[in-house]
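Q: What does the assembly look like in three dimensions?
Context provided by user:
Components: four
Sequences:
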Amino acid sequence: MSQLASPTASRVAVIGASGYGGLQTLRLLLDHPVLSATFLGGERSAGQRWSSICPFLPLPDDPLVQSADPDRIADAADFAILSLPNGVAARLATQLIERGVRVVDLSADFRYRSLDQWSKVYAQEAQTLNRSDAELCQNAVYGLPEWQGPAIAEASLVAAPGCFPTASLLPLLPFLKQGLIEIDGIIIDAKTGTSGGGRVPKEAMLLAEASESIAPYGVVGHRHTSEIEQMATEVAGQPVQLQFTPHLVPMVRGLLSTVYARLRDPGLTADDCTTVLNAVYRHHPCVSVLPVGTYPATKWARHTNKAQLSVQVDKRTGQLVLMSAIDNLIKGQAGQGVQCLNLMAGLKPETGLPLQSYYP
Amino acid sequence: MSQLASPTASRVAVIGASGYGGLQTLRLLLDHPVLSATFLGGERSAGQRWSSICPFLPLPDDPLVQSADPDRIADAADFAILSLPNGVAARLATQLIERGVRVVDLSADFRYRSLDQWSKVYAQEAQTLNRSDAELCQNAVYGLPEWQGPAIAEASLVAAPGCFPTASLLPLLPFLKQGLIEIDGIIIDAKTGTSGGGRVPKEAMLLAEASESIAPYGVVGHRHTSEIEQMATEVAGQPVQLQFTPHLVPMVRGLLSTVYARLRDPGLTADDCTTVLNAVYRHHPCVSVLPVGTYPATKWARHTNKAQLSVQVDKRTGQLVLMSAIDNLIKGQAGQGVQCLNLMAGLKPETGLPLQSYYP
Amino acid sequence: MSQLASPTASRVAVIGASGYGGLQTLRLLLDHPVLSATFLGGERSAGQRWSSICPFLPLPDDPLVQSADPDRIADAADFAILSLPNGVAARLATQLIERGVRVVDLSADFRYRSLDQWSKVYAQEAQTLNRSDAELCQNAVYGLPEWQGPAIAEASLVAAPGCFPTASLLPLLPFLKQGLIEIDGIIIDAKTGTSGGGRVPKEAMLLAEASESIAPYGVVGHRHTSEIEQMATEVAGQPVQLQFTPHLVPMVRGLLSTVYARLRDPGLTADDCTTVLNAVYRHHPCVSVLPVGTYPATKWARHTNKAQLSVQVDKRTGQLVLMSAIDNLIKGQAGQGVQCLNLMAGLKPETGLPLQSYYP
Amino acid sequence: MSQLASPTASRVAVIGASGYGGLQTLRLLLDHPVLSATFLGGERSAGQRWSSICPFLPLPDDPLVQSADPDRIADAADFAILSLPNGVAARLATQLIERGVRVVDLSADFRYRSLDQWSKVYAQEAQTLNRSDAELCQNAVYGLPEWQGPAIAEASLVAAPGCFPTASLLPLLPFLKQGLIEIDGIIIDAKTGTSGGGRVPKEAMLLAEASESIAPYGVVGHRHTSEIEQMATEVAGQPVQLQFTPHLVPMVRGLLSTVYARLRDPGLTADDCTTVLNAVYRHHPCVSVLPVGTYPATKWARHTNKAQLSVQVDKRTGQLVLMSAIDNLIKGQAGQGVQCLNLMAGLKPETGLPLQSYYP
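A: Here is the predicted structure of the complete assembly.
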């Protein structure tokens, strides 16, 4: 991997390189005009040439995958993207920040301002990890660039949001912020492709099991519920409790969130509500607001870092229906991570990110 | 097709034989111990041998497909299953009933007690058809066997429910009937495979378009909304208006309905609510209620005439979450049609119907 | 599980019940008029209620899964179907036969007449297993019912063929037997769904990996090559060496074999060759020969125990093209196992087996 | 659409814009540093804004689709890519060339040097079209850039190869050219995703029909056979007749060709044969030769203009097995068209084309 001559910080370490998050990050950086991967970290694959692990994604100079030694990472990189299991990222993040490496963490470890809250939601991980980095948690920035842009730009530690929270919050937050919807009774019915389950083999994610089927899972109490509620509460300025139900869809990638909320003013039309979204996202190139009556398919968002939003209103019931489609591995994970890196590096958020899908 | 020697009515005409509804009906009748197809009707395929249309589903004696002449149908059959486009079935149904043939109609033509209501919801079809059979509409029985069994058994005209109404009403009706949920704010988020769109080629149903994607459609105002509301209103004893959003899922068959409603009594648990369903469906072999914490995958219902139901309750929000998986072409269409025929023929409702899937 | 009152042998032990082979066997036996599962064996799942493992396939009386103790199996069953990993089945098979239980083994352990040959092909398994049952290997019957019917009926040990050999040999053997094709230069290009890889999670079988992709694997030297060649050699009466290339197809089940061979008599037409197949398979209800110009889709064979065969001839090149579609888990595995059991129990081979698919 | 200020020819008309070929071309040109679409032609969609047809692929300034008037095209563009049905492209191509527009035709109309040959193979189209442009056929260049680069660079009319010929010829031609394989007995077993069938709805391409199934079609006599043979014959220097069998695979895009041929020298190894391919393609960035033992999945080639080749040799049978994976809509169609345009415009062939997939 050629190190850039450029004096500005642009060297990125990708830790957990052979999982889907790492793979996507590497793929995205290949097309990036400024940032480049200068360190590949992995546990199981340490010591191997990249080409022997992923013959389908050739990297320049076919680098070795290395174990994630903080000192070596700090030597090689200005930034690190961590694509590690929940509960594993926390320790490395701390070590890297101490060494001056700015970190984007794709796990859930720093998504909660309160370590106590994290320990409750990720109870199993909390037990084995025994964390004591409450302060770091508090200072970490929630990496939803359209809402936290300036804070991300300054951050030393960014917690990239989960895929479901990303898709669900983008259409919901403008209405919560402006007080246009009732804060109780919000329902998020979400649908994701199986790559969201990661690359480690699990029976439920086998093609033979997941294909030709759709099923709910984690009904009531899925961990992304609390993540969505934390951000919704902050923006609404009052406690938000909502219903979140994820479903597994027989496709590789793509995530659709259908969000239901009751309008406070029953006179608001779909056009009005589309205007609300447009006002917020007009200058955000990674969000697209569709015209009324056009509903997003996840295929439209596939292989892009763009969220496709649409609104409909039912005058009879007073319900607002928000639809939001993303690529769960890009805008829902690695792409959003790179978007955060862009801001941290002083670049435009969309720099180097794909915004148009290949259809069909 | 061999006509049975049995004196009891058992001869079935299948009209619209080469569409998915007709195909499924024929396939189901092949395994039926009493009923058998004795007339195959079709427009485009009239005059052709069955084997030249569907080499993959050999029928005994390789019958000719015939045009749907009411007199010839009445000669050949005691019952008719009509699998025709909306707005086309009505006329033939009338003619058949006049000739003493008892009819199960898989289209939407007789699902509304009021012809006016039908004409509003199916406005386009109403314009070209100009129906005047209000009385017949009023007398037609809505063919949800678990709720209308005795009426179906006596009926001369049964309107088999739509696939979405079937999946959605089965878990919802017990709670409406017992007044356990608020009647406003009900949300039905439904997901269907593409075979629900029929066999006539449409761009949106091409594998190249629909695969690797999920998308909402018919948001606010889908025609099944009013069908669901009609039955919900009858059972609740007061007007029900609800939110219904269908989604297209990249799979051949299967339909999942996720239904959200607010419990009136916040103390009810998932166990309580499962008991409610069990009490209603214990003696209905075409409905299965899953234990708390087990959520249905549509794959479990595939190629069966069984609905798989499950309940969950969120104590925090007071929401009831109902999940219902069916095979859209069997319990959601042709299988339910045969279930109705069984009742009309004095048989047990599940006679000859598959109740166990082949997994995976 | 109710034991049948019938005095004839009809009790079947299913060992390896929660894998795909076991699951299919149990599902098939549910519809069987004579045979029934009276013992469920499994290692990882021993001690659990069946419903807790497979809520989607309720069995009568919800039996316990037991560890595969030979004595208890012999008490409970007349027959055993073993659906165990290669190299694991051999020992249990020996123990069961000693106890008078007649065995159908779905693994590869007894597919070779010569233990030496097996040890060469399954070298890895041979190392850990250290078998000394050469005689049993020699006496085991290769369970291709259309070609070995009488031997199967008498056998105490039947080795059910692999999925690829089944699909490939059925169309090929008649031409080899009659000397109609050159025995060198035969090419088998085969395509299988991912359920052939079993239920144990593997990265390559994840939906995220296998979907939206087709790829060859095991190119040159796949183990089924030698299994196909053994049977081809026996039927041809001279050594046959051929090319076999499997491909992984993004679907759950289904297997298509496209077989290329040079005709000895260039004057033979597709009609002639179809007649050759018809002459052999006319009275075999688990094989269907399609008319010239109709090519089988695996969907036509899905969820059935029927092989769909078709022939085409290229006059220009003198090539015979044979096409053969099966359901890899039924005619390619468990269904064929039950077909063998039927013969062993003195029943018609197709007894209780599904022969018609649900389309689409 | 902004016209570039650059004096060099860079304006491209895309005719048949809303089909898959046109869509892909437009998508590829969006990322192109030099070429840009300056005219959108379509019949059914003429007069409509692009965004109303394809809301998922926003184009700058949301152009109108226009009817394909040769004069207006000639005013607006230096080049034209025609993505029209076979037999329709020929007339427009002639008119455009007369007006000085250089044409890349994605149809089969100019793929044969001899109009007579075309009329035989495309007999149905020939009857309705009544072509008299034999000379133009003779002068058209077959647009396989790795083999016809210089001729393409000078051409006024390029016929982009079919998807199957592209995938099959790339691995095969080097061995034919060097006389390393027998020229008789070559077998091409090819597998394609359903997008190859185009965007016009056809029953066989419905998800409900094509999903969960693989099937051969066009067995013996598929029209791409003659196209492959024409080029193979030219390169081999003697007449080549081969067997070509396409199969429909349940995936959107991707095409795999498995090619079997007998080595003349049985001593050649897979390494030797890989060297042969490397020698030819080393400097061709749109072809990748995989190491021995690594076999291409179509997923590796998806959304790229790169062919992934691999070789294996069976010492026992003397067979060479060539594997070739492409994206049927990019390297198999529109991408190859743009690759040709690049050469015609004096650019490097890979300019602006995606060469790395997004995995998974």
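Follow-up: The longest strand of chain D covers residues 255-262.
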